[in-house]
Amino acid sequence: MECRAHCGACCIEPSIQRPYFGMPNGKRAGEICTHLDLEHYQCKIWQTTDYPAVCQGFKAEPDICGTSREEAMETIRILEVTTRG
Predict the structure, then answer these.
(1) What is d(CA 85, CA 76) in angstroms, rounded to the nearest whole number?
(2) Cα gap 9→64, rounded to integer Å
(3) What single string gives the DSSP state of each residue in 53-77?
(4) One Pfam family for this entry, by name (predicted)?
(5) What confidence tens digit (pLDDT) does each residue in 3-46 have?
(6) What's the rounded Cα separation, in Å, for the pair 57 and 8?
(7) 41-54 pLDDT, tens per residue?
(8) Are 17 and 26 in contact (CB under 8 A)?
(9) Is the four-CA dihedral 33, 13, 52, 85 of positive or negative sign?
(10) Please, which residues have CB within 8 angstroms of residue 6's CB and are 6 or more apart in sequence?
(11) pTM of the entire structure?
């Protein structure tokens, strides 16, 4: 599955615990990543050397992304809450 255009759910809903380029304290769940282009909802550093490893490991899948941006946001939000350590 290819990433859905104008989505950005994976750049908003999950937390990222480790520091990365532009976000020295990581990212809280629900916080918009500083690298998300809010006009197109696409990552501004995708496929660059600054693209975080955690983001490189994410692959769009129907079970996560669903059939809409709203569904993806809700699924990732639920996963974030239920998998917190």
Answers:
(1) 16
(2) 10
(3) HHHHT----HHHHTTSHHHHHHHHH
(4) CxxCxxCC
(5) 999 999 999 999 999 999 999 999 999 999 999 999 999 999 99
(6) 15
(7) 999 999 999 999 98
(8) yes
(9) positive
(10) 40, 41, 42, 69
(11) 0.89
> Where residue 85 falls among pLDDT bands split at 50, 70, 90?
low
Q: Using alpha carbons only, what angle is made at residue 73 by residues 78 and 81, rounded to the nearest 5 degrees? A: 20
Phi and psi, residue 73, nearest 5°: -60, -45
Residue 27: both structure tokens together: 């990212």
Query: Parallel, antiparallel, or unpaired: how do β-strands 42-43 and 36-37 relate?
Result: antiparallel
Q: Which two tokens stand for residue 41?
A: 């909802």
Residues 6+ positions from 56 with CB-CB distance below 8 Å: none
**What is the DSSP code (8-state) at residue 69?**
H
Cα–Cα distance measured from residue 8 to residue 27, given in angstroms and rounded to the nearest whole number: 14
Q: Do 13 and 76 touch, CB atoms closer than 8 A?
A: yes
What single letter denotes the amino acid at residue 37? D
Enter the tokens of residue 46: 């995708």
